[in-house]
Fold each of these.
Amino acid sequence: MKKELIFVINPGSTSTKVALYDAENLKDELELKHSAEELKSFGRINDQLAFRQSAVEDYLKKQGVQLSDLAAVATRAGVVGQLEPGAYLIDKTFADRSLHSQTPHPANLAPVIGYTLAKNAGIRAYAYDAVCGCGVPDKMYTITGVPELERAFLTHVLNSRAVSIAQAKKDGRKLEESTYIVTHLGGGITTNLVYHGRILDFVGDDEGGLSPERSGGVPVRPLVKLCYSGKFTEKEMQSKLKGKGGILAYLGTNDIREVEQRIDAGDEYARLIFETMAMQIARDIGSLAPDVCGRIDKIILTGGIARSVRFTDLLKERVSFLAPVAVIPGAFEMEALAGGVLRVLRGEEQVHVLKPEE
């Protein structure tokens, strides 16, 4: 019998998620927590490499899994250029590019760890649907109105494509012949136009509606004035936009469940902010329709906030005139990473190889 045991690695800011999948079946999943005390000793994210790799290897030992038991390693990937959607072989070029990414993030460490483990085991490691995996965008979608500024194509590629793949299968359609608008509702919110299997255009978490902890798009001239007011440092301003903005700035919490509890208790200000977020996100969804002349097969709502029936009902009310709305709550990063690599192992998907000059 062909081995199909896949080890999945997905680092975040304060944890590293790991999982073992035997084909489609989840055998075990764990979030390896890293305390602030442990992480503060590292000056840069890259300095965490040995620490995180040791934690990952310890997990495998506790599971009684030898590297030789694995069929492949599947990892998240950060910003390493303009990648195509789908799977990339993690070779030395990919691992080196990840380690020297100009956009520091723990996700950049995953391919390096995966490459080392796979090399030691004599197997292959793959990155799947990197955050930069939108391909080379049409120039039309990068123009901003300020020639010195171009839109960076970075969005929730992994989960948006994962739910699109699942929805296309449910609809009995080929993903390559489908058009979905997928809104990922998390701490940051992005709305993505998944056109024939790739993200053609999107509304980023710094462009559209406010979210639990991000400001979304704000009036640019007042923003510039605030930046030069002398009241805030650049770091403080960045924090107001990402991390301490949005719902958190207005209501002092980024927990949508708490916001709903306040609404149920009669807090009309909480209701106003909650419904404003829904209206703004609905507007983001509508803004992508002209890209494909309104020919949308389905709108998909996903991410953690999609568990809120109150919120998804508000969105449905405003956008269902565009296309039918499907709700797929939660995030499916681990499942998507494993599933993508499984399709590679079975010969159902082609593998990209990063060229040194890319």
Amino acid sequence: MNKIIQSLVKQVVQIEVSGKKIINGTIIDLGSDMIVLFNGTDYIYIPLNHIQNFTVDCDNENEIEDPKGFPSITTGEGKESLSFGEVLTQAKGKHVEIYVTGGQPLHGYITDIMNNYFVFQSAVYKTMYISLNHLKWLIPYAQNEGPYGLDNHNISLQPENDSLASIFEIQVEKFENKIVVFNTGGNKSYIGKVNKIEDQIVEIQTARANFIYLNLDHIKTVHQV
């Protein structure tokens, strides 16, 4: 556990995460590879590898209040600290807000967690496959609250017969000859038909028959249209 961050528990900080996103809040807890921040409304779970830098807000300029309750995702019994993998496991099936890329977060719930990606049922984009390496933060919804006033029954589920690959790269290969969207909502969002995949390079064909070549390591999300 990082002793520097541990010394700042209960301090108000300003954190810059990957993508130049700024989050203000009080450090509530510290896990083996993540921190829990309270922004005055929500508990935000942030992987340490996406924290670019942070400063202490001694004056609490945003007037962030102390939490009146406890996070819904906490350390398991008999464990000293929480990992981000355990956060995802505890969040499975619950309504959450996640941030991956672009200006807007995604709202929905996690249905499956694989080796290096997870399956997310988005209220807007339906079934999405999201690389774990690019997940910047996760916010559990309050109990009995759902995105857009929906519940799980109003969000389309992944077909039961849709088998999942163990790793993200192989899952992307399943979309060969299909039209997909990569990196939804970001300035590097791409729509096209997946022609072929070889040695980390994905060839997609756009509507006007132009070809774009993407590095699999930089593909954050994928969903079929």
